[in-house]
Design goal:
The protein contains 3 helices and 12 strands. The protein is of the alpha+beta class.
Length: about 190
């Protein structure tokens, strides 16, 4: 008879985890996020998620001006109890210090992108956008699977400096064509070929 593997899960502190805890706890699963003081583990993703990330990332990399850097799934520190990993992000190039860097600060992020997954709908649609807006990230995209062909629908938002909340600037189904934060033109139907 073989014994079941024993897992020792960290016990959260009474006031929740902090960013310092996130980077100090040993053996956390890859892509663990800190949301409102709680550790959030990422579950396996669907093909839609992977293909959409690839399509948007490659498009953003082609079109981003030299003073921006496009990245994916890296920690962005929003405050002492919030350090999510946006699926994609655009930061100011000077925010990259070296190859050992493990995080960016919210002040360096120009765009945060979340692709909705079944296990993260509430976080992607509600919690993360509110936290990104509170931290002052100017642009946010929420991407969902839509239509008969399961293509990405990209909901684009811009931060209102008065309310510190996002306002919807458009919903893009077949083509993502924008002028902010820089000129972007991505054929969303290309997801079929990935």
């Amino acid at each position: 008879m073989t014994a079941e593997p024993q897992h020792t899960w960290p016990v959260p502190p009474p006031d929740g985890y902090t960013v310092d805890d996130l980077f100090a706890l040993p053996d956390l699963p890859p892509h663990t996020e800190l949301i409102d003081g709680s550790l959030v583990f990422v579950s396996p993703q669907r093909m839609f998620h992977m293909a959409t990330l690839y399509l948007l990332e490659s498009g953003l990399r082609r079109m981003a001006p030299d003073h921006y850097l496009v990245g994916r799934e890296m920690t962005v520190v929003l405050g002492p109890r919030n350090a999510p990993e946006p699926d994609l992000f655009v930061v100011r190039r000077e925010a990259k210090r070296d190859q050992r860097q493990t995080r960016f600060d919210a002040a360096d992020v120009v765009l945060a992108v979340e692709v909705v997954s079944p296990d993260s709908e509430a976080r992607d649609r509600d919690t993360k956008p509110r936290r990104y807006a509170e931290a002052g990230i100017e642009h946010f995209w929420l991407v969902e699977m839509a239509g008969e062909k399961d293509h990405p629908a990209v909901h684009t938002y811009e931060l209102d400096p008065v309310t510190k909340a996002y306002g919807l600037t458009g919903i893009h189904h077949e083509r993502l064509k924008l002028t902010v934060p820089f000129t972007i033109d991505i054929d969303l139907t290309e997801v079929d070929h990935l």
